[in-house]
Write a structure and sequence with these properties.
alpha/beta
């Protein structure tokens, strides 16, 4: 039997396919960016058809690069940007509107209306989430209310909703010709509709949101065969689905309660394995599904989500044109010894954990004529580390667990300045694994377990290897001074939008 697994990693800015062998090593990959569509301030959209076409392209190119055919694969695992919302016609196969991206803030008034007198935490006891623009539920409401004919078609059973995983699986498995309409527990847990204990759609919440249950996908585990691909990938088992951050938790082999990872991508996402019982957060974190492997019990997680981290570097590149390539930000930031007293709070679409302030907006605080673009670049990188510290503090308060170290992954972990500053500001070692593409690796692991490439999770622990460790080197008095300045800057971003 072939032992090669393909992972399709559909992210916020690009889509990648990575092929892994049985040792968890990368043998081939291909990546393709897709357009970021900004119709209005605070609105962020993607073209679902472009994402689908790019997905097929990168799978085929990864296979071509390795001189393999899809019949050489044991299975395909999918990991995806999570709350991004697609509604499409099951008759035509076409989206009724662009995908509304997780960063999009247009549903602020819908969230406020749903909160009413009961407040932002109205549904938290059931779904683990506050009412926020981040999640899929309010985005579905917006599409049904604002796209002509959408609600009527939904009530007539003509429309389907999905996060990107559902959209891809449906298209891979036949689309209008009997495509499978499924999602996994991790993606379902980000809609605001899945009951964390029953792992089923909550009918009472759906009624309050006025969402017809018929448009929702079937909720399945994160590791099982959902169906086989048709068309050019005919016969390939689709065998794993995990939301991107859950996939990284799994790829980092954080299988024990108390183990945590932080993924540095478009946003930043710190997840801690909290065991087989959901832990309610009292400090602004999300209670979510970590993963569910086949028939095994679900594993829960606490999550701290930061909206803008790597996206801030992209903004520096694309909007201000201070750099030509994202990697140049480190060289520019290294031209100065510190941030010169400025702090950049990137609340472009509000603040996520631990504040959940949807009416916050970005600020640069502490500007003087001394400041150069190098100071701004440094403040851009430091913003990621400061936001991570705030989330980690909340996590420690919720669990009583003080992390001894932090496992890291994602595109920004090759930035030496950022990783050292992260260790300094957290005052714990920061550990990078040999394979930093742990999101794709987690999806590959989930699929490989379902098709028998790996026997069990214990098999997977042996493949995790440490690549580099950054140890704290900052004096406590300086750490406290800088963090105090950050907290002050964050408060300046509150209540900007009326």
């Amino acid at each position: 039997m072939t032992k090669i697994i393909a992972a399709l990693d559909q992210g916020t800015t690009s889509t990648r396919c990575i092929l892994f062998n049985q040792s968890g090593e990368i043998i081939s990959s291909c990546q393709k960016e897709h357009r970021q569509i900004f119709p209005q301030p605070g609105w962020v959209e993607h073209d679902p058809v472009e994402i689908w076409e790019n997905s097929i392209y990168v799978i085929k190119e990864a296979l071509n690069n390795a001189k393999l055919d899809h019949t050489d694969l044991a299975g395909l695992g999918i990991t995806n940007q999570r709350e991004t919302t697609v509604i499409w016609s099951k008759i035509t196969g076409q989206p009724v509107y662009n995908a509304i991206v997780w960063q999009d803030a247009r549903t602020d008034q819908i969230c406020s209306k749903l909160a009413g007198e009961k407040g932002q935490d109205r549904f938290r006891s059931k779904v683990g989430l506050p009412l926020a623009t981040y999640f899929s539920g309010p985005k579905i409401v917006w599409i049904l209310e604002n796209v002509e004919g959408a609600r009527e078609k939904a009530l007539n059973g003509e429309l389907l909703f999905g996060t990107i995983d559902s959209w891809l699986v449906w298209n891979l498995t036949g689309a209008v010709e009997n495509g499978r309409h499924v999602t996994d527990v991790t993606n379902a847990s980000r809609t605001m509709f899945m009951n964390l204990r029953t792992l089923k759609w909550d009918k009472d919440i759906l009624k309050i949101f006025d969402i017809p249950e018929a448009i929702l996908p079937e909720i399945r585990s994160s590791s099982e065969i959902y169906g086989e691909a048709r068309g050019s990938l005919s016969g390939l088992p689709i065998a794993g689905i995990l939301g991107d951050q859950h996939a990284a938790l799994f790829g980092q082999t954080c299988f024990d309660p108390g183990q945590a990872k932080n993924t540095y991508g478009t946003g930043c996402f710190l997840l801690l394995n909290s065991g087989e019982e959901p832990t309610r957060s009292e400090h602004g974190l999300l209670t979510t599904l970590g993963y569910k492997i086949g028939d095994a019990k679900p594993v829960y997680a606490l999550e701290g989500s930061v909206a803008i981290t790597g996206a801030l570097v992209q903004w520096l590149r694309d909007n201000l044109e201070m750099i030509q390539e994202s990697a140049e930000v480190e060289e520019l930031a290294n031209q100065v010894e510190d941030n010169g007293g400025i702090y950049f709070v990137p609340a472009f679409s509000g603040l996520y954990a631990p504040y959940w302030q949807s009416n916050a907006r970005g600020v640069i605080a502490g500007l003087t004529r001394f400041i150069t673009k190098a100071h701004i670049a440094r403040a851009v990188l430091e913003a990621t580390a400061f936001q991570t510290k705030e989330v980690l503090e909340a996590m420690e308060k919720d669990t009583g667990i003080k992390l001894a170290s932090l496992k890291v992954d994602g595109g920004m972990v090759n930035n030496e300045l950022l990783m050292q500053f992260q260790a300094d500001i957290l005052n714990v070692p920061v550990i990078r694994p040999t394979i930093t593409e742990t999101t794709a690796l987690g999806a590959a692991y989930a699929a490989g377990l379902a098709v028998g490439v790996w026997k069990d999770q214990e098999d997977l622990r042996d493949y995790w290897q440490e690549d580099k460790v950054w140890t704290p080197a900052m004096e406590e008095i300086e750490r406290d001074r800088q963090y105090k300045g950050w907290k002050k800057a964050v408060k300046r971003s509150f209540d900007w939008v009326d």
